[in-house]
Amino acid sequence: MKKRTIIILLLFSFAGIAQQSIDKKVNALLKQMTLEEKIGQLNQYTGNNQATGPITINPNKETEIKQGLIGSMLNVLGTKYTRQYQELAMQSRLKIPLLFGQDVIHGYKTTFPIPLAEAASWDLEAMELSARIAATEAAASGIHWTFAPMVDIARDPRWGRVMEGAGEDTYLGSKIAYARVKGFQGKLGDLNSVMACVKHFAAYGAAVGGRDYNSVDMSERMLWETYLPPFKAALDAGAATFMNSFNDLNGIPATGNKYLQRDILKGKWNFQGFVVSDWGSIGEMVNHGYVKDNEGAALAAITAGSDMDMESNAYRYHLAELVKENKVPIALIDDAVKRILHKKFELGLFDDPYKYCNPEREQAALNNPQHRKIAREVAAKSIVLLKNDNAVLPLSKGIKTIAFIGPLVKEHKQNMGFWAVELPDLDYDKQVVSQWEGLQNKVGNATKLLYAKGCETTGNNKEGFAEAIAAANQADVVILSIGESWNMSGEAKSRSNIHLPGVQEELVKAIQETGKPVVVLINAGRPIIFNDTADSVSSILYTWWLGTEAGNAIADVLFGDYNPSGKLPMSFPREEGQIPIYYNHFNTGRPAPNETATNYVSAYTDLKNSPRFPFGYGLSYTTFVYTNLKLAKKKIKSNESIDVSVMITNSGKVAGEEVVQLYLRDKVGSVVRPIIELKDFQKIKLNAGESKTIKFHIDKEKLSFYNANLQWVAEPGDFDLMIGSSSSDIRLKDSFELL
Prior knowledge:
The protein is of the alpha/beta class.
């Protein structure tokens, strides 16, 4: 033990020495910089060669780079191009290297499931590995920095960017934020790591009406208790950078919000990295009505703590004059510059500006077959089995004829989701396994496959119904692939109507009327509403957008080569009128005693309160029994903890994974507490008939909350403890008291 302690102390000592060494280098360089060169480090421009074709550098940008007036670029993909830009920076007086950033949200060349889908896996190791592979491929392609993870808590599925986060729950979201940062960053400076950028700071996911970029108005207590913890978890994981959000928070645009950036992030949390604006968000403070012009925007942003200006040009054209007029202290400029330079030193760019520009390493990373193998595994883990009433699934590989019907069956790019990186000259038909191809790969020649499109994802055209019905009538089983188009969820993709679009539910009904067994795959980037299908179809898989290996992963689940284990990270509403809907709500003074009560209780007169599918929900091809819940003690003091154990048994006939969820309820508080809160979970795999006792640990931290004075406290009183398979499927209960 003593030897281990010495090693840890030595590691901290070496880290401290390295930190001091970089600080000295940064300070020495800062002394050599002119005001214009300092401000140059605070500017980020786009390279605009994201899609196809040769690089063309804007002559004005080329000149500014050579003059040291640009510190970072985004949308420059590939070592050939990043090297060309970096060579321009090496012609500047001080030869300060550029940073290259990119939206590497859920993969680079190898595309993984959208983040919300990955969150449905509840598999933190898988999510960290997914981010690690994305970082490996991006870094090999010359990228230093990803604008991910998005850690915004989102309770409104109308908001298109729910696809980019981890869902509605603060505890789960915090765990995922930590894992993703660790995955992206590893050890900064390694050739397979990129800087993470935690976004959007803060409360962007609570936009009024679920409308992107809209205002956010909330209490301080809700901000601290629900929306800030994932950001703090990401910071604790070592996140190098943060990004401003587009919204105003309680009337102050986040980009110009001193409370968020200087008081909380750089003050209370002691964040040592740098903050970048979102695209144009500094200049957009003019539209907010918060400042008069771009000069006022630059003043507000730098004063509030936004270090780098992405594409507003506000810093580039106004900061120098603001400093000369004594409106901006040079100390603020120096602090921002030092934060950025420090990261460039950490990445090793001053030692070798081209260390991330190796074409051979790039090709090896982008064509590593192991990456696709892992993408397939993660995609399978992300699929959620919503219904399987008649045990239609898993399908037998001996089926003679399958009809595969729907607008998404033979699509390739659709499976990539909104934030896939559009690499130059990428052939989606070759890169992405369609669902049709995945089924072909699985069944071989023994099974006859029939195809009919049926309809488009949108519109009212039913001309393809007859062909689809004819195919269904010839089949032993029908698989329907329906849902959103890939670009219906994402940034600027808010929808007031989140029902399954077009005539797709009518197509499902028409196929159901053939009497053939039907399995429905729903592809989407958000929770959508499909009540008719949910009522009538016995087997439903929610397949999100699963990325490069979508087709193979879906086939693995359809035929039982992988037993689905996903659990929903967001509640699925019955109708838009329930939104925002989330499991951990307050009880109110007039709680509805049941789903049918409506008279003078907190309920709808025309709709159940409950969601269609609740948070934490997901089925398996096997069943699990929960027994032997034990609490080591029933009363604890504030400096004590409780060990909890429970036995889980796979009572079915096949191996499977279960996400065992632990929830608490603080019965009485100085501020009202949610009726149920996730406080821990474990994902375990059990063979058929196998039992395992798992343990949880409850300490003061898990019992604490922010009181009316924003103090983090655990108040004495009674707590309900619940363990189950979802937030609405509680298998075992007990209680304890905090003295």
